[in-house]
């Protein structure tokens, strides 16, 4: 069952975060752009209010939260109600699928990743962006999990766990980049993007359907 309750009730609070944490947000955008391939038709799964799809050039999204979906559609995105574990698309519909901080809210990560594999064309790219649970920010979120209205429902993953699940779902040829190298309160400019993982808290992984 989709974990939509906090996102329906606290939509404005969620969306306002991106304005209040502008440099964190822009750093995350830069990291995703570093691995975003040229694509003809891309979809963001868990598109939220469209904060990532829009600047990254995606026009389509899937979002189970009614209130979040409304905002994304008002911003010009085409958004369908649905969940990652049962995507409402035919086989081989897209050449790019994106998930940004969505994996921690999945009910079944393997089922969701297999669904993404199904809807991608051969050699299509799957880009997954998330907070690594073993990073400083990941550990902070874990510590405050029970007090946070959004993350109390979350299951956090390490980069190794994401890579393992992607491989099991049929993805190969991985590239990984990272950003957010300082504590959240210390970030007052755009952070650099580096190859690999283990230093930055925000990690982006790209896998290819082979």
Structure description:
The chain has one domain: 3-Layer(aba) Sandwich (Rossmann fold), CATH 3.40.50.150. The protein is 34% helix and 23% strand. It has 8 helices and 8 strands. Strands 3-2-1-4-5-8-6-7 form an 8-stranded mixed sheet, sandwiched between helices. Helix 6 links the parallel strand 4 and strand 5. The longest helix is centred in the N-terminal third of the chain and has 14 residues, at 22-35. It starts with a helix and ends with a strand.
List the helices and strands and how they pair.
Layout: H1 5-9, H2 11-20, H3 22-35, E1 42-45, H4 53-56, E2 60-62, H5 66-74, E3 78-80, E4 94-100, H6 109-119, E5 120-131, H7 136-143, H8 159-168, E6 171-179, E7 194-195, E8 202-209
Parallel strand pairs: 1-2, 1-4, 2-3, 4-5
Antiparallel strand pairs: 5-8, 6-7, 6-8
Feature tags:
single chain; 210 residues; alpha/beta; Rossmann fold; eight-stranded mixed sheet; 23% strand
Strand segment count:
8
Low-confidence stretches: none
Cα-based radius of gyration, to the nearest Å: 16 Å
What is the CATH fold-level name?
Rossmann fold
Q: What's the helix count?
A: 8
